[in-house]
Amino acid sequence: MRKYFGTDGIRRIANTELSPELVYKVAKAGAYVLSKHTDHAPTILIGRDTRISGTLIESAMVAGFLSYGANVKLLGVIPTPAVAYLTRKLNADASVVISASHNTFEFNGIKYFSNKGMKISDELEEEIEEVMESGKLDELTAVNEKIGVSEYALDLLDEYVYFFRKNFDDNIEKYNRNDFVVGIDTANGATSVVAEKVFKALGIKYKIINNAPDGININNNCGSTHLEVLKKYVIENKLSLGVAFDGDGDRCLAIDETGNIIDGDKILAILSKYLEEKGKLKNNALVATVMSNLGLNKYSEKAGLNFVQTKVGDRYVLEEMLKSDYNLGGEQSGHVILLDYNPTGDGILTSLMLIQAILETGKKASEVASIIKLYPQVLINAKVNSDKKYDYKENERIRKAIEDLEKEFEGNGRVLIRPSGTEPLVRVMIEGENQEYITKKAQEIADLIENELK
């Protein structure tokens, strides 16, 4: 059981739970683990989002790296996927993003990336924790000329803008329309420094909101976790499309011209069709998690795609993509991995691929998104004894209730039971054609689980 790292790095309240002292240790141990096989002083990139605590955490991180003897390039405020891209481009030994993604401003976090620009594995995170707890940190202290140095490299953000120009300039210019205007919501986060530059460079007409970060307004009623503001903005301004990023810029959700949400599952369907028609969908496959909507499964089946599901978490989606040579995968939340371009979710990249797919059809966003029908979905938490939350599989009454309901659905519904990794809860998720009915059934199964596993 990991003490510090969760499903997406370390994420805690800044300056209390995520103290400078803890950050210093994480940096020193991380520099050692991620560069122990190199024969040179490692170079590590650091990027951050717009949280008020960002420079505090960054300072402690820099101190830890320099104390170990690593050299640091400070990228400033920059999206997570830009850090991943630059790590590979510059042949850095590792990189760190200081961000708590879609969480509110008082949280902050640490995400490590390997020299391949990918989030590090569970095993490497465990190794970092072992070093932190082993008492050997004092041995990892550089002295004299071995002490590391840091430098600001804020101009590297332009390399990320050029990455988009190189890949999208010609096609966007060819299909762009004067009446096609995109609303952009940067969540007052990391994309606020670069989204406008990218859209301007590509000649895409846009209007931008929530693009004035002040350290505490990141994700505050804006961005991909709060789509109501963008929805209203798209309708009132008669825009062709709205795109919303999260705090660190690795997610993208969209709003069509009528105000309907284009979530991660719909985006995956649209992009799989687009790539498949161009002969660019590797092994004709689409990777998603078990939490993806049943509608995506049905769409893939009808489209003749190889639909592969993993456990929840974009790192597991990426693992499957790398293992089986697939190039498209993602999550309902808007984490979309386009492996031909970047080995992590990239909100701006996803938005540009979506825009390109819509422009090339000559249709409206709502028409392009109509290729997939999503099923109503309900999620209810059952409170259980922490020691018994995995026992639902062996419980005869629970198992029979689930089997009976799935038989009743006849393939047009689904029951997914998932114990929480951190709380004494079992999550009951049901999809089906009737919202009222599946809500009733989810409550019944949740009540049964609570009674049987209390």
Categorize the overall geometry.
globular
Task: Look at the structure and give the mean pLDDT.
Answer: 95
CATH topology of the largest domain: Alpha-D-Glucose-1,6-Bisphosphate, Chain A, domain 3
Alpha-beta content class: alpha/beta
Major beta sheet summary? 6 strands, mixed
Taking all Cα atoms into account, the compactness measure Rg is: 23 Å
**How many strands?**
18
Number of domains: 3
Question: What is the CATH homology-level superfamily of the largest domain?
Answer: Alpha-D-Glucose-1,6-Bisphosphate, subunit A, domain 3
Using brief descriptors, characterize the structure shown.
five-stranded mixed β-sheet, six-stranded mixed β-sheet, 39% helix, alpha/beta, 14 helices, Alpha-D-Glucose-1,6-Bisphosphate, Chain A, domain 3, 18 strands, globular, TATA-Binding Protein, 454 residues
Characterise the protein shown here.
The structure is a single chain. The protein is α/β, with parallel strands linked by helices and 454 residues long. It has 3 domains: 10-152, Alpha-D-Glucose-1,6-Bisphosphate, subunit A, domain 3 (Alpha-D-Glucose-1,6-Bisphosphate, Chain A, domain 3, 3-Layer(aba) Sandwich); 159-369, Alpha-D-Glucose-1,6-Bisphosphate, Chain A, domain 3 (3-Layer(aba) Sandwich), CATH 3.40.120; 377-452, TATA-Binding Protein, CATH 3.30.310. 39% of the residues lie in helices and 20% in strands. Strands 1-5-4-2-3-6 form a 6-stranded mixed beta sheet, sandwiched between helices. Strands 8-7-9-10-11 form a 5-stranded mixed beta sheet, with helices on both faces. It has a 4-stranded mixed beta sheet with strand order 13-12-14-15, sandwiched between helices. A hairpin with a 4-residue loop joins β10 (252-256) and β11. α1 packs across α4. The longest helix has 19 residues, at 157-175. The mean pLDDT is 95.
